[in-house]
Amino acid sequence: MERGELVPDDIVMTIVVERLMRTDVAARGCVLDNFPRTLKQAEVLTKHSVVPSLVLVLDLPDEVTDGRILGRRLDPLTGRTYHTQFMPPPEKEVASRLVARSDDSPEVHRVRMAKYKENSALIERHYSEGSRQKLV
């Protein structure tokens, strides 16, 4: 993860499919945030008859995602996350100890975003055939 790579699909899908097959999900539904992340994951969900009723695609300029990700800071003492612009720490003492996450470097972010864009196009195509898709 520190290099911006994703957890392997087989590990993720074992966990996710097991959870989505539980009765509470069938009864109440669920929201999958930024998931599936790969075409293989989308295909496995479809194979298990997990088909979303709505797919939202957020198309943001790179500058927006760069600013959101690269501004994140972590307080190693409390574990709380802050943002340099959108949610700065309330006190100078807290600000002085904040650190950037190791996977929030510009290099890792570029790798992550390139992979995201590649995967997103395939996933959008997969779901546009059978679901109501709304582009936001």
Description of the structure:
The protein is mostly helical and 136 residues long. 48% of the residues lie in helices and 10% in strands. The strands form two sheets. The protein has a two-stranded parallel sheet. Strands 2-3 form a two-stranded antiparallel sheet. It is globular. The mean pLDDT is 88.
List keywords for this structure.
mainly alpha, two-stranded antiparallel sheet, 4 strands, 48% helix, globular
Question: What is shown here, in short?
Answer:
The protein has 136 residues and is mainly alpha-helical. It has 6 helices and 4 strands. α1 (9-20) packs parallel to α3 (39-47).
Q: How many extended strands?
A: 4
Largest sheet: 2 strands, parallel
Strand neighbour order, sheet with most strands: 1-4
Average per-residue pLDDT, rounded, comes to 88
Poorly predicted sequence stretches spanning 5 or more consecutive residues: none
> What percent of residues adopt helix (DSSP H or I)?
40-55%
| Percent of sequence in beta strands | 5-15%
